[in-house]
Write a structure and sequence with these properties.
alpha/beta; globular; Aspartate Aminotransferase, domain 1; about 40% helix; 15 helices; 2 domains; Aspartate Aminotransferase, domain 2; 4-stranded mixed beta sheet; binds pyridoxal-5'-phosphate
């Protein structure tokens, strides 16, 4: 019988369900997780700094989530209709999210942003979407346009980062640089009459918005008669309970949630102004302005019960102060490890998110983040992975959870220092050999 890893390399392209891009020698199969750690099918313990790409903010197998899921699954797992569980969650989202008069659920963040985009096109009768270069909004066509272009064209032209997208998607997606309000304003002045919506990750990948950027963006978008979408799939319930809206004090027209909302269970949610959301009412079916949305598993009672349990945890006293303190502790520790070694790097991040970028200046958008030494970052990520830190070496963002402590961060940082020294030594000897 071949090992679990061999079997996964055989049945999954690249041996996984997407995005990890690990060399086969590092491939793993996970058996279980608990708190901030997981165990592979070979019995190896790893500390987890990916946390299901940020979806498991409570920590793996949190008793409150396990209890909520177990109780609900025994009472039925899907009706594709409103349940007590989905109703309670919808009420909580509408009461905490100032952007949301109404909400609907999907099964993923991809669906949530896709519906937001469709709603803006239908509402304005315009064809185009403006997104920011380097931003990810899910696996749909707009999400993968200008995600990581190698030779980016002049703004606002886009470049698809995936083959196979519908050609119209590239024609109808315009691209702007994050944090550059002047260029955004110019694009909106020129193309505004065609732009239905502007979608933004308020905290793009690991880049913070400059002061005033999001408020200025909202004003410019509204002057152009378009709608502003906040993709809060990462920021929602993570930077603050009220997400980016609360944290940065800017309220969009539409908002998409996912990841931390479900506490590790599959979920997406999209909501916004009543007049925009009402376009999905099925009594309008057949009207030219009717917007189709449907998701067989969206809002299922197991996911929504888990989400309500997760939100109860997030509402506990001091949770966000703790997440921010821990994130700052991790970033400070990483900065001092690199400073001790005289390495030029920027430690990016906010709240429970961190990223190391080997570059001289703090990046503010996709193009300036490309000045960072991505090869060194990747070698370091793979070295960390081989030393028992579970992370996604393709996206170097590190996610903390409620289960992480200073001790988990110390363990990570000890491994980080050793991994960095090993990678650095290896690159020095390659250098010496080739000179
Ligand atoms: C900002 C952002 N939006 C949307 C998505 C898509 O969410 P999902 O993977 O649940 O479809 C992601 C996923 O990483 C994301 O980071």
């Amino acid at each position: 019988m071949s090992s679990a890893v061999d079997r996964s390399l055989s049945v999954f392209p690249a041996g996984c369900n997407g995005e990890f891009n690990l060399p086969p020698r590092l491939a793993k199969v996970i058996a279980r997780g608990e708190g901030p750690q997981l165990w592979t099918s070979d019995g190896e313990r790893m500390i987890d700094f990916s946390m299901g790409w940020g979806s498991v903010l409570p920590g793996h197998a949190h008793p409150a989530i396990v209890e909520a899921v177990s109780q609900q699954v025994a009472r039925g797992s899907n009706f594709a209709y409103v349940t007590e569980a989905s109703l309670a969650l919808a009420e909580e989202i509408v009461s905490m999210s100032p952007a949301c008069d109404q909400v609907r659920f999907s099964a993923s963040g991809t669906e949530a942003t896709m519906y937001c985009l469709r709603l803006t096109r239908a509402f304005t009768g315009r064809p185009k979407i403006l997104k920011f270069e380097g931003a990810y909004h899910g696996a749909h066509d707009v999400g993968v346009v200008s995600l990581f272009p190698n030779n980016p064209p002049d703004f606002p032209e886009c470049l698809s980062s995936s083959a196979g997208i519908e050609p119209g998607a590239a024609v109808n997606t315009l691209v702007a640089p994050f944090n550059d309000l002047e260029t955004v304003q110019q694009i909106l002045q020129r193309h505004g009459h065609e732009i239905a919506g502007v979608i933004v990750e308020p905290f793009q990948r690991c880049l913070s918005p400059l002061p005033g950027f999001l408020a200025g963006l909202k004003k410019a978008v509204h002057e152009a008669g378009a709608l502003l979408i906040f993709d809060e799939v990462v920021t929602g319930f993570r930077l603050a309970y009220g997400g980016a809206q609360e944290y940065y004090g800017v309220i969009p027209d539409l908002v998409a949630y996912g990841k931390a909302l479900g506490g590790g269970m599959p979920i997406g949610a999209y909501g916004g102004r009543r007049d925009v959301m009402e376009q999905v009412c099925e009594d309008r079916l057949g009207d030219p302005g009717y917007v189709w949305t449907a998701s067989t598993l969206g809002g299922n009672p197991v996911s929504t019960a888990a989400a309500s349990a997760a939100l109860s945890l997030y509402r506990e006293e001091g949770v966000y102060a703790r997440l921010h303190r821990l994130g700052a502790y991790l970033r400070r520790s990483l900065a001092s490890i690199l400073a001790e070694r005289d390495v030029t790097a920027q430690i990016l991040g906010d709240g429970p998110i961190a990223q190391v970028a080997f570059t001289e200046a703090t990046p503010r958008d996709y193009r300036s983040s490309r000045h960072a030494d991505g090869r060194l970052a990747r070698r370091l990520m793979l070295e960390l992975f081989s030393r028992g830190v579970f992370l996604n070496p393709m996206g170097t963002k590190l996610y903390l959870s409620l289960a992480h402590t200073e001790a988990t961060c110390d363990e990570f940082c000890g491994t980080f220092a050793d991994a960095f020294d090993a990678v650095y030594r290896a690159s020095e000897s390659t250098h010496a050999m080739s000179s």
